[in-house]
């Protein structure tokens, strides 16, 4: 044992070797930073990180974007409804707010802020959710939102085949139990829907109308409300592309309120001006050459 200890290098020798290696590493790093452009460095780091995570990491990440093939992603919508119900003691922050101006004392609604981790469990599996938000550089382009779900690679198939359908069914149940309806207005400048609680002081009970007709309308509306989740309307549409984008962002269970363009825009004024111009064309004139007058 004593002979083995004698063969070990001294502490000063170890420190000297460590200092030499550190100096060499710093020199190589400086040379690489000077010779290799920053974009190439980022590319190399990304590839190296992906290689390490591929063979060493046991985690798998699902990414759910807000839009899917030019339409609103229904999976994203379901996750957005489902996750606020899974907030637990491990959640370190929470986004609260309310759009019910008629009842300001009502409890606020929950939303998930960016970079907030939500831990969920399903059939004994621990799942970690995170919302990522990439801010837009232009005010009229909405921020890009994505939900990241991290799980073990070995349960990937189970999560995809059972967990996501469970989220969709739960979200549908939550929406069907909501007592308040939301009315949505399309913000043309921000290219997104903005909501408010749909509540009006007028009531059919106080409306002056034939009782039979009133009851028929009330029954029809009650039947409609029983199977609809939201009322949605949009404002101005500048071109066909805007209209297509708005229509694809609405759900199948929606009401689209389209205002008569002839009664509210410049076209009606232009038509009135055109009518006046035509009337002026029929005014009687005077001439010293009767032969030049059209008999018609």
From TrEMBL:
Q: What are the protein's UniProt keywords?
A: ATP-binding, Hydrolase, Membrane, Nucleotide-binding, Transmembrane, Transmembrane helix
- Domain AAA-type ATPase N-terminal, by residue range, is 36-132
Region Disordered, annotated ranges: 269-296
A GO molecular function annotation here is: hydrolase activity
Task: List where the protein spans the membrane.
Answer: 12-32
What Pfam family is a match, any one?
AAA_assoc
| Record-linked InterPro entries | AAA_N_dom (IPR025753), Mitochondrial_chaperone_BCS1 (IPR050747)
This chain belongs to the protein called AAA-type ATPase N-terminal domain-containing protein
Species name for this entry?
A: Gossypium davidsonii (Davidson's cotton)
What high-level taxonomic lineage is stated for the organism?
Answer: Eukaryota, Viridiplantae, Streptophyta, Embryophyta, Tracheophyta
């Amino acid at each position: 044992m004593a002979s083995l200890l004698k063969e070990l290098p001294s502490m000063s020798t170890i420190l000297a070797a460590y200092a030499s290696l550190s100096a060499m590493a710093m020199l190589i790093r400086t040379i690489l930073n000077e010779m290799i452009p920053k974009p190439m460095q980022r590319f190399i780091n990304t590839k190296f990180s992906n290689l390490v995570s591929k063979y060493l990491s046991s985690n798998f990440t699902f990414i759910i974007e807000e839009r899917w093939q030019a339409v609103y992603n229904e999976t994203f919508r379901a996750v957005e409804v489902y996750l606020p119900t899974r907030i637990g003691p491990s959640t370190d922050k929470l986004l609260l707010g309310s759009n019910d101006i008629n009842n300001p004392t009502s409890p606020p609604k929950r939303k998930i802020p960016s970079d907030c981790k939500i831990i969920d469990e399903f059939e004994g599996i621990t799942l970690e959710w995170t919302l990522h938000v990439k801010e837009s550089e232009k005010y009229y382009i909405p921020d890009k939102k994505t939900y990241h779900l991290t799980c073990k690679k070995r349960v990937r198939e189970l999560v995809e085949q059972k967990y996501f359908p469970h989220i969709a069914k739960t979200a549908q149940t939550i929406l069907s139990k909501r007592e308040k309806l939301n009315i949505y207005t399309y913000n043309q400048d921000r290219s997104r829907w903005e909501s408010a609680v749909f509540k009006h002081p007028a009531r059919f009970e106080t409306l002056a109308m034939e009782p039979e007709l009133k009851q028929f309308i009330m029954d029809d509306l009650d039947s409609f409300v029983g199977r609809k989740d939201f009322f949605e309307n949009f404002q101005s549409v500048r071109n066909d592309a805007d209209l297509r984008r708005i229509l694809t962002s609405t759900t199948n269970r929606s009401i689209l309120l389209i205002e008569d363009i002839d009664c509210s825009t410049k076209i009606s004024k232009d038509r009135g001006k055109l009518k006046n111009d035509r009337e002026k064309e029929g005014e009687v004139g005077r001439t010293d050459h009767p032969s030049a007058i059209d008999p018609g």
